[in-house]
Every structure is written in structure tokens, then in C-alpha cells.
Amino acid sequence: MKRSIIFIMILALVLGMAVGCTRPAEQDDTVVIYQNKVEIHEQLTAFAAAYEQATGKKVIVKTSGGDSPYAEALRAEFQSDRQPDIFVIEGMGGYNTWDSKLVPFENEEWMNHTTLQFEVDGKIYGFPVAVEAWGMAYNKDLLEQAGIDPATLTSQEAYRAAFEKIDSMKDQLGISSVVAMAAGPDMRWVTGLHNFNGYLSAGLPYGDTTILDMLNNGEYDRERLTEYVDWVELLFDFADRTVLLTGNYDSQVSQFATGRSVFIHQGNWIDPWLQSNNIDFPMGFAPHASVKGEHNAIFIGAPSFYVLNKDSKNLEAAREFLNFMAMNEIGHNYMVAEANMVPAFTNVTLLPEAPLSANVVEWLAKPDGAYTWLQNDMPDGFGMGTIAPIYEAFAKGDITKAQFIDQLAARISEIN
Fold first, then answer.
1. Are 38 and 65 in contact (CB under 8 A)?
2. Same structural domain, 34 and 126
């Protein structure tokens, strides 16, 4: 018995020495990336292996997400001796948490091929992991039957004329409404975040935060806000009342998917739902005409970013790995064909198979084809908690259009 105990102790000591020997080697010679998308762990690991085969440089992928909260797990990594060289933040919230650990990117080749980098005070801190986007998604076949070219849908006036024409052809087209739009309690993120983002950024150069900055200071542009509410009213007027007032995500998406509406107010994240239900009619995005004027862009953003740990001993190797991902065909294949993501880089020529995501890539390639995501930079809870219920009241008819404008303005004025 004693000999067995001694043997176990010796074995443990040997194993401990082995682990102690390999850990510094891993940290000194190997790039460690800690990321939060469990659905791409296997694909990213395979890409890291392909990268090592192509360059001889090793990358280890560590993932936390799903049932294991990423933020807590990342803190644990930083409190140990396993600090990653590359990790993930999700916008300003993540930046504010980790700014003391971040170092900016400088003079990277990938910077010339994206406008979706994460930037603070003129310095680029974040490599965009992927792209999500939304516009007015349309059924191309139904628009063609109605004799409407989606390329003409660039203004509120054009949309109104198209909506009225389509509405007059409901029976002929076999639809129940022009737009699949939802404003009920389950869909407050559609109204208070995504739709309201039109007030914040539509018609403005990418990265322009003028209206957002005003809002965060408790100020608003009354004329712009009124123009924006004209757009909300137009969408509500041509939506199915049941879906508008009580619809959830599935009922909204299924209305569009089954050809019972020509448009839907959603983004390319509905692609998996459409694919899983074998929906394959041709579709694409037209701009939201959220305010007056001509619009030739959709709302495009990167929901998360790879950032560099300033204390990493492998900063140069970490930069090289990310640059390879963005600039090499092996990286392009990983992002599009393997991970089924929309890449944030205009030099990627591969198109996702899903139609809306493929169309996002086309918009990305257009000069000035993107409006900024700013809805996540409002005060916490303002979109879904504070103003989304006002949309619901307007949709129900409980308040007038003038009251809707006044209440939005009042809630903005209460900030700070």
C-alpha cells in the first residue's frame, strides 16, 4: 500500500514537472486566442492547424460561451498564468472593461479592406470577427410580379408609392400584408434598438456619431426625429396587425418566408431559420429610408472584435495570425465556407451560400454602402426598456403620431 502511494506521488510529481515545462513554451512560442463563439470552435481550430501548416507558427484556440459565461471565464484567464494573446470584446462595454489590457493595431494590411474596425479616439483596437446587417429584406419574385425594381427603393417617397401599389395587389400577389413588422412585447429589440438606429445613423457617413452624441447628452434633432417617425408610421400602416401587435420572431419571419409579405424588417441572422425551413426564393436588402433624402446603404456592423493583450509576449505573432485570416485565401475559406460567417473585409471574394448574407457582402463592397450600428452605444436599457413600449402604444393606436414624437423627445431629454 505504501509503495503504491509512493508511486502515485512520484507520478504526480513527474506529470506536474511536465506541465510546468510545457506551459512556458506554450506561452512563449504559441499564440493563444480566447474566443466566445462555441459554434465556430471546431472551424477556428481547424483554421489554426491550416495556418500552422502554411507558416510553421502554432496557434491554440480556447473557447468559452454558451452555458459558460465568456466574461467570467475571461477574467479567470487573466487572473491565472494563462493570459491569452488575442481575446474578444463586444463594443464599448468590453472596451471599458478591458481598456487597460489593450494595445492598438497599427499599419496592418487588413485595415485597408474594412470600415468595421473597432476604433476609439482615432486608434484601432478591434479586428472585426464577422458582420451582421439589416435592411428592408425583400422577396425578389414578388417585387418583380408587382413591377417594382428594388434598386428604386431609396427614399420614403419611393417606398410609399411601392407600398401603396403592392397593397392594391394583395389578392393578385397572394399576400396578407406588405411588410412583416413586429412591435409587440417580444420584439422590442426590433423597434427600440434596430429601427431606432435609423434615427441615430441613417444618411450619415459611416462612423458619424453626431445624433448619438446629442442623445447621450439628453438632446435631440426635432426635425430629424419627425422624419424618422414618418418612416415608423409607414411601416406600421402596411403591416399585418396581428403580427405587428402580438407577433414573435417566428411568426414575423414565417410570414415573410411563406410569401405572405413582400418585405421583412430583419437582418441576415434570419438566414439559418430560412435554411432550416428550406426557404430558397431569391431575396436581398434594400435600404431603410429612416429619414428624408436618398439612401444607398444598409445598417452593417461587427458584433464582436478580436483585440490584442498588451502584455502578450507574442504580439507580433498574434498580429500576423489575424492578418493572415483577413488577407489569405485560407482565411477567407475559413470565414465564409467553414464558419458560415459574413467577413468584414472587402477583399474577400467568396460569397456565403445564404442569400441575405451573400447580399450583405455585396453591400459591403459598395462605396459608402454601410450605415453605422449605434444602438448599442445608447444608455443601458434605453432602447428596449424606455422607448420600445412607446412604439407598441403607437402601433396599438393608444397614442397619436404627435404624441409618439413628443414622448420619444421627452425620454431623450431625460437622459443625464
1. yes
2. yes
Residues 364/344, Cβ–Cβ less than 8 Å: yes
Does 340 lie in the same domain as 383?
no
* Four-point Cα dihedral 377, 393, 252, 243, nearest 10: 180
Q: What is the pLDDT of residues 213-245, one digit of tens each?
A: 999 999 999 999 999 999 999 999 999 999 999
Task: DSSP letter for 8, please.
Answer: H
The DSSP line for 256-324 is HHTTSEEEEEEEGGGHHHHHHTT----EEEE----SSS----EEEE-S-EEEEETT-TTHHHHHHHHHH
CB-based contact 370:299 (threshold 8 Å): yes
Q: Kindly state whether residues 400 and 336 are assigned to the same domain.
A: no
Task: Report percent pLDDT > 90 for the chain.
Answer: 81
What's the first-to-final CA gap in the chain, in angstroms?
Answer: 71
Q: Which of 297, 262, 284, 299 is nearest to 374 (CA)?
A: 299
- Please give the angle made by the CA atoms of 195, 201 and 204, to the nearest 5 degrees: 145
* Grid coordinates of 399: 397614442
Q: Are residues 403 and 281 in the same domain?
A: yes
Tracing cell 431559420 back to the chain, one arrives at: 273
Same domain, 326 and 254: no
Do 242 and 335 lie in one domain? The reply is: no
